[in-house]
Design brief:
Blueprint (H helix, E strand, L loop, with lengths): L9 H19 L5 H6 L6 H12 L2 H4 L2 H8 L2 H6 L1 H21 L4 H9 L1 H34 L3 H49 L3 H6 L14 H17 L1 H8 L4 H32 L8 H4 L6 H39 L5 H22 L6 H15 L1 H9 L5 H21 L9 H19 L14
Length: 471
């Protein structure tokens, strides 16, 4: 089937953009201080919290990378396997959520500092900012790609539109506005995908025709990937989710433990719907458009669907990309404000000053993210890189705070450094040998270093806190 641009789809994007901007402006007027801006005044109920968790986690990584690229390149089963790390991660966060709220910190680095000392906070801040800027960058380009494919708009112009929307919505109202736009986007995406799955299968001639038009390897359990290669795709998302500052901030923003629990159950159920739907749509696209870029598999179907269905799917995909981008941008700016500016540059900064600096950092990091994406050839490549830098560098040390009382500052900091150094060595210096993602190497190294260094250096008479062991 030949792809033809449909400029009328721009109306759906335009309508979505207007609604999001209006909501952002309205909610921005309710921001009364820095806590309101960063944690929405700890006022999120289960409905909005579920939506913002869902929309933040599912963005361009799923729409243009993740499940989409996996289904197109390797088949339906490897793509469906990508759902498993998410479900496992949500379940673990469900257990940890009360502890996260108890810490009462704005950032993950603040939690790490409470256990490992100030050095860990500094290292964590750098890791978070670098990883999150990378994640924001591929949200921007992801929107550029889908607008180019569907409407004929140039990738460059589409990326600029994505950058402006992401920066504006994050800057104007912080989490107070982002959470509301996230919730709308989340439910729009669920509805759009539910409608699209049966429609696109029918357009493709039925499931039998879909299977007949894909390579035989696409129906195998691994799609031609070795076990270690497959693990290289599964581990990054799991370890990012388990340590994702965005999720921690949102859980800390809930009205209470009851709201957080209800929201996470809803998030889990929604992901059971969304992930398979994305996989099925992208897999069907492989049978219809075998020569397109893998990352565009899901969006290509908007041009084969009835206009109204394609328009809803396009608006839903754009909403997820933009809401994920502004969430990660807000989170990274929070680190700059509270971990660096507030700790080292202006320790006496007023609440109003912290709020204004957060907005300034949102714009600065957004521009940096826009420039960064030019150095990565595909969405999937920067996605795996950013996920692993974060997941290997922070998550083992962070989970140890909640689950291993014996862990000490030396062990935690050593794990963080080992995870990042291993990732950079594997990806940049060694150029990813055997086409194996660095997560397969970096995550085990970080865990081993955490355990071994802690056991070797722990004094049996200490509690392992930052005051008893020098970092």
């Amino acid at each position: 089937m030949e792809l033809q641009h449909d400029p009328t789809l721009l109306w759906y994007i335009g309508l979505y953009a207007v609604v999001m901007i209006v909501i952002g402006i309205v909610m921005a007027k309710k921001v009364s201080g820095s806590e309101d801006f960063v944690l929405a005044g700890k006022s999120l109920g289960p409905f909005v919290l579920m939506g913002t968790l869902l929309a933040t986690w599912t963005g361009s990584g799923s729409i243009s990378g993740g499940e989409t690229s996996m289904a197109f390149s390797y088949g339906i089963w490897p793509s469906l396997m990508l759902m498993v790390p998410t479900l496992v991660g949500i379940t673990i966060l469900y257990i940890v959520a009360p502890k996260i709220r108890a810490f009462g910190k704005y950032t993950v680095s603040g939690i790490l500092e409470a256990k490992y000392g100030r050095k860990s906070r500094n290292i964590a801040s750098v890791i978070i900012i670098l990883a999150y800027v990378g994640i924001v960058s591929y949200q921007m380009q992801g929107l550029g790609f889908i607008l180019n494919l569907t409407t004929g708009m140039s990738v460059e112009v589409g990326t600029i539109i994505g950058a402006v929307m992401i920066i504006f919505l994050a800057m104007i109202g912080g989490l107070r506005s982002v959470s509301q736009t996230d919730a709308i986007s989340g439910f729009l995406m669920v509805g759009g995908l539910i409608i699209t799955v049966p429609t696109i299968i029918a357009v493709a001639g039925g499931w039998g025709d879909v299977i007949a038009n894909v390579p035989e390897s696409h129906m195998t359990s691994t799609g031609g990937l070795s076990t270690i290669q497959l693990m290289g795709f599964l581990l990054p998302s799991l370890f990012l989710l388990l340590g994702d500052q965005n999720m921690y901030q949102r859980l800390a923003s809930s009205k209470g433990d009851s709201s957080a629990k209800k929201a996470q159950i809803g998030w889990l159920i929604a992901m059971i719907i969304i992930s398979p739907a994305i996989s099925i749509i992208a897999f069907t696209s492989r049978s219809m458009f075998p020569d397109i870029d893998p990352g565009m598999a899901l969006m290509a179907t908007t041009l084969a669907l009835p206009t109204i269905v394609g328009g809803v799917l396009l608006a839903a995909a754009a909403s997820f990309i933009i809401t994920t981008g502004n969430s990660y941008l807000l989170s990274a700016a929070t680190n700059l404000t509270y971990d660096i500016y507030g700790n080292y540059i202006n320790k006496e900064a007023s609440d109003k000053k912290l709020l204004s600096m957060t907005r300034i950092y949102i714009v600065a990091l957004g521009v940096f993210a826009f420039l960064l994406i030019r150095y990565f050839p595909t969405v999937l490549s920067v996605q795996m890189y950013a996920y692993t830098v974060y997941g290997a560098g922070l998550t083992p040390a962070l989970l140890a705070v909640f689950f291993w009382k014996r862990v000490n500052p030396i062990g935690g900091i050593s794990s963080m450094v080992a995870g990042v150094v291993t990732t950079l060595t594997w990806e940049i210096l060694l150029q990813k040998p055997f086409e194996i993602n660095s997560s397969v190497i970096a995550v085990p190294v970080a865990i081993i270093v955490l355990i071994v260094v802690t056991l070797v250096t722990t004094n049996n008479n200490t509690s392992g806190g930052p005051s008893t062991v020098k970092a």
